[in-house]
Amino acid sequence: LVSADGSLHPTIFAEMSALAARTGAINLGQGFPDEDGPAEVLEAARAAISGGMNQYPPGRGIPDLLSAVSEHQRRFYGLALDPAAEVLVTAGATEALAATLLALVDGPDDEVVVFEPYYDSYAAVVALAGARLVTVPLRWPDFQPDLDDLRRAVSDRTRVILVNDPHNPTGAVFTAEVRDEVVRLAERHDALIVTDEVYEHLVFDGPHVPIATLPGAYERTLTISSGGKTFSTTGWKIGWVTGPADLISAVLAVKQFLTYVNGSAFQPAIAVGVRLGDEFFRGIARDLRDKRDVLGAGLRAAGFEVSVPAGSYFTVADARVLGATDAAEFCRELPERAGVVAIPLTAFATPEHRSDYATLVRFAACKRVEVLEEAASRLAVLR
Ligand code: PMP
Ligand code: GLN
Hints:
Layout: H1 12-23, E1 26-27, H2 39-50, H3 63-77, E2 87-91, H4 92-104, E3 111-116, H5 121-128, E4 132-137, H6 147-153, E5 158-164, H7 176-188, E6 192-196, E7 221-226, H8 227-230, E8 238-242, H9 245-258, H10 266-274, H11 278-301, E9 305-306, E10 314-318, H12 327-338, E11 340-341, E12 343-344, E13 360-364, H13 369-379
Parallel strand pairs: 1-11, 3-4, 3-5, 5-6, 6-7
Antiparallel strand pairs: 2-8, 7-8, 9-10, 10-13, 12-13
The structure holds 4'-deoxy-4'-aminopyridoxal-5'-phosphate (PMP) and glutamine (GLN).
GO molecular function, one term: transaminase activity
Pfam families: Aminotran_1_2
Protein name: Aminotransferase class I/II-fold pyridoxal phosphate-dependent enzyme
């Protein structure tokens, strides 16, 4: 009943979080924080519910959140967006990705270029859209794409170049050369750019540079973000897409038949978050950078080789030095051996390329420091 190529298999996040629940292991698999976000944001959701914001909101999103996102794009990136036409609220970045790709690509002659490993929903929505996935490899340990690989992947068949920066699962932040080349290739082959920037505020040596701010990019780029990571509200599923009015209208045309609308009481709360002061945004990046360092030191002490991420929730470690030959098997056994759950990078690769990531494992750093330290001390048994 589901796609023959296996792209709609049960997601690795459900499998690994269930494994953590079953074994009582520390869950450094699925990326969600173990602490609440800003009190003002939580309070605003309670107030919205008490204030009666409990029915269908407008299809594009409530005007207050559309304005808040538009102000945010101006404040952080100098982009001037019309909140009524160039912003669309979605059920998280997940729906934004699905609606965007379903709107922009049309069948097997359209190719979507992605960097591999990729967030798992990318391959699934490309399959749902009936398009062809073309991958550009990111290689251990810095996970920057080779520009020649990128040039070989993009052609006149390319409808969309799908970027994720900062990148899940590797934590890479792409260099200016990579971003520039994406725009140049999109212009040359008349492709669109879809850029998933859900970790935009979790860049450790900022500032974050959205592709949409590069010369020539805005008119062919849809930018996706979400309140989940920035405000530690991953369960609220409030995301957004920004870009030129005609492309946003196309995404809205699909979104209305996926969820119609979403999260009436959470939208005003995320608007409060998006308008928080600079100290909040600097603080979350600093805090996660400290956690990255605690996790990285713990993994090194346990004997892993560790890549140093420049952003996102995640750190990739190589378990080869610990004798691993199959990351999926290593992760299945890890709760039993060490009481920790992590995710094999093979879950983020196409079947033909899984062997390139055979010993790499993703750990989430978005947990309390004492939890990361406890995980590190448990992992020490692997040495
Ligand atoms: N894109 C990336 C790169 C992610 O890591 C995630 C998940 N956390 C999403 C999209 C989905 O975001 P949301 O929870 O807002 O749907
Ligand atoms: N984005 C988070 C991760 O990569 C969670 C994703 C999910 O549960 N679908 O871990």
